[in-house]
Amino acid sequence: MSWITQTLTSSIGKKLVMALSGLFLCTFLIVHLVGNLQVFNSDNGMAFNTYAVFMTTNPLIKTVSYGLYALILIHAFEGLYLAFQNYKARGAQRYAVEKGSANSSWFSRNMAVLGTVLLVFIVVHMSNFWFDYKFGYTPYTQYETSLTTGETTAKAYEGPEIKGKMEEFMREESNTRVVIVKDLYRSVVEAFKNPILVIFYVLAMFSVSFHLVHGFKSAFQTLGINHTKYNPILNFLGVGVFGILVPIGFVLMPIVFFLKSL
After folding, report:
1. In terms of Cα–Cα distance, which of 221, 247, 217, 218 is closest to 235?
2. According to the per-residue pLDDT averaged within each range, which of 26-30, 69-73, 148-152, 234-238 is highest?
3. Do residue 159 and residue 211 come from a single domain?
4. Neighbouring residues of 11: CB distance < 8 A, sequence distance ≥ 6
5. What's the alpha-carbon Rg for the chain, to the nearest Å?
6. Rounded CA gap, 222 and 217, in Å?
7. Is the dihedral of CA 24, 26, 27, 32 positive or negative?
8. What angle do CA 218, 222, 228 make, to 5 degrees?
9. CA 19 to chain centre
């Protein structure tokens, strides 16, 4: 067995894998959030739909995405394995020492539970949107933008079958740009009319918040970055950005669309 394999399968190696994969997933959350916020453009979903096409057709993004799916699974199963190992290691001693609440935060004691909730959320999220978008039926919408006035109109596409997720062309006689695109935006709007799904998303974002508040800082501690000079910055990023702003950004979409549907 090589030293790389020995390192990665050791307790320290597993913690390093957890830290690095977790930080990469934090980066992905920022990118994903920026894309999701395109739903709030006043363009009937055109920006969001073209973003969805780019994310699912660009060769580089697709390659990164498959790596991301693998990282999510690795991060989840490594986390559950480490939690199980810690539980076994404590053994009978867990009844002989002081209460866990006196020695650790609620977040650190429940990271495995929060992570499991998030894994369930990811499965539901992917089945609701990604799976249907790629393999199910998603309608097309036709956007027409006047390059003279800048005005964009949208209507359901009822023409010949489209090959691929998007077609784009110019109507020279009217100076109009036409985009016919698979309408994930419409699927999102329809999905978040369901109050049960909205509540589930809100609860999942609470789990994201708690998970990231502890996980972000812990990842840097695992990597040996624990200094009084940098800790305030890491605390701000972990709590202010990933613990508050990112979950709020994600939860805005289901709440806003549900309220609009009332």
Report:
1. 217
2. 148-152
3. no
4. 82, 85
5. 22
6. 9
7. positive
8. 70
9. 17
Domain identity same for 177 and 204? no
Distance CA 109, CA 230 (A): 25
The token pair that represents 189 in the structure block: 């709007």
Chain segment 165-221, per-residue pLDDT in tens: 999 999 999 999 999 999 999 999 999 999 999 999 999 998 888 878 877 877 888
Residue range 47-87, pLDDT digits in tens: 999 999 998 888 887 787 777 777 777 777 766 666 666 66
CATH number of domain containing 17: 1.20.1300
In angstroms, what CA-CA distances link 26 with 112, 215, 241?
17, 10, 10
Could you report how far apart the first and last alpha carbons of the chain are, in Å? 61
Q: Which of 217, 211, 235, 195 is nearest to 83 (CA)?
A: 211
Residues 146 and 257 occupy one common structural domain: no
pTM above 0.85? Answer: no
> How far apart (Å, rounded) are the C-alpha atoms in residues 222 and 198?
35
Residues in the chain: 262
Domain that holds residue 165: 139-182
